Structures are given as C-alpha cells and as structure tokens.
Model the fold of this input.
Amino acid sequence: MNADLIHRMARATLAGDLPFPDIVGHLLAQGVEYYRVDYAAGQMVFYNGAGSSIVAPLKLDGLPAVAADFDAPALQAAILDSQHHGQKFRQFSERAVRAGVQGYYAFLRGQRVVYLGRQGDQHTEWFPGARPKAD
Done:
C-alpha cells in the first residue's frame, strides 16, 4: 500500500474532492480491502489483505458528539442523500453521528458498509447495485 496515496484519498474524502466510487477505485488499486472510520477516536484506518494498516487523521472540527441512541432511519436518509444527491462527507458525518454512528467499516471487496452504534447497534448498507439476490 502506498501511504502517500492513501493519505491523499483520506484528505480527498474529508474535502469532498472526489466521488466515493473514484476513491474506492484508488484504494482497491493500492490493495486496500477495507477501512474503518472511527468518529470517537478521530481516525481512519485502511487495511490490506496481508495484515498491514495505515492510519489517517479524521479531522472534522466542530463535529457533534455521537448520539447515545442509534437511529437507523436517520442514518439511511443520510446515506441516500450521499448516494443520490452528492452530499459531502462532512455533512454525512454530522448526520451520521447525530444518528448514533460511532464508526463504520467499509468493506470494498465485499461492497458493503457496516455502521456501528455506541450500544452495539448496527446497520449494513450495500453499495448501490451490490445487494445479493434473495434465495
């Protein structure tokens, strides 16, 4: 994994400079299999399949505290605004922490994101078009 490129992708995410699919493409090209966004610790961690990781700061000054209760409908509304209306990462993050998201894992090869609340609540969101068909 190229640490400089991964840090650039982390900064592009924070600044809203690139669309999520472009960032995912760059990360996959660097061997990133998944990454973790931790609002409580203020960091993003990128992992490859060989056990290596790269930590990048998650600097979002003035972000509200993570709500104690998980509000899945509010989170889903924030996700939809990002997917369909181009909402930037900063606004998404504000809405996510207000909805009780303390962090999430984005599984790039698995094409899903698992959001976690402070009490163990979770919500899995598939990348657009990636949801498996029901049996």
About this structure: The helical segments are 3-15, 20-29, 72-85, 89-98. The longest helix spans residues 72-85. The two ends are 37 Å apart (CA to CA). The domain at 3-126 is CATH 3.30.1810.10 (YdfO-like fold).
